[in-house]
Amino acid sequence: MQVDLKGQVALVTGGAQGIGRAIVERLAENGAAVAILDLEPDSVARTASEISARGSRVIALAGDVADPARLGAVQKEIHEQLGPIGILVNNAGINTSKERRAIHEYAEEDWNRILRVDLTGVFVVSKAIVPGMIKRGGGRIVNIASVAGLVPLRLQSAYVAAKAGVVNLTRSMALELGPQGILSNCVAPGSIITRGTRALFYGPEGDKTEIARSLLSHVPLGRPGTPEEIAHAVAFLVSPEASYINGAVLTVDGGWTAGYTRDW
Questions:
Q1: Across residues 69-73, what is the average pLDDT?
Q2: What's the CA gap between 159 and 162, in Å, rounded?
Q3: Backbone torsions φ then ψ of 220, nearest 5 degrees
Q4: Cβ contacts of residue 27 below 8 Å, gap of 6+?
Q5: Is the pLDDT score of 38 beyond 90?
Q6: How many other β-carbons are positioned within 10 Å of the β-carbon of residue 14?
Q7: What residues does each domain of the chain span?
Q8: Which of 24, 116, 134, 224 is deepest in the core (most CB within 10 A)?
Q9: Cβ-count burial of 178 within 10 angstroms (0-12 exposed, 13-18 middle, 19+ buried)?
Q10: Pick the catalytic residue: 106, 159, 244, 260?
Q11: Are 82 and 10 in contact (CB under 8 A)?
Q12: Is 202 a catalytic residue?
């Protein structure tokens, strides 16, 4: 997807791999200067180097999205190296381990870990970046949620709660920040092939596992999505053409939630 992002500075959290990396690549290809924030220093440095080699302006920053002190420093570093941030993509997120449990058996440490990254992280990053957006006269925020935030899924209570929180947090942000010229929207991916979903559902054989076949039997398109398909949705929402879209949830799930009738 081609949009005009020349002169824009973007921050993408969790951008070293998977969906985040695809988003970084798409924004950079369309002219934006991009800062990648990720917890893994080596991985984020490698990603930034590889994308920069194609002629784009990309910088690597290591840090925890739920650490307010680090985010204050991140905002300053990006401003000094690239300029004021006009695009924020809150992509960083984690899910439970391969062992899925009902709520009465769910480990409190897993609950706290997932909520901290997936929901509190969106709050902390946005709180750090929004004042600069207001000062520059506006911006675009895209929060990456999940279909798990729109429909109830079994055995993933922390992830479901966190992503539902992201959906309504996005709507709240749209109400609060729209008058300041900041548009806040949300992308809700369905099942996307990434390192995380391979570990949870697909395994090394991709969509050939029994659990993968069960999941995909309820997706009208009959396949998982790709990180690039999520990146296209993000590119649209931050493009000049999306100038009257605020508080929307763009579901990219192959039709999974169009007729949600399954126990999953």
A1: 98
A2: 5
A3: -55, -35
A4: 5, 8, 10, 12, 34, 87, 89, 234, 235, 238
A5: yes
A6: 27
A7: 9-190+225-255
A8: 24
A9: middle
A10: 159
A11: no
A12: no
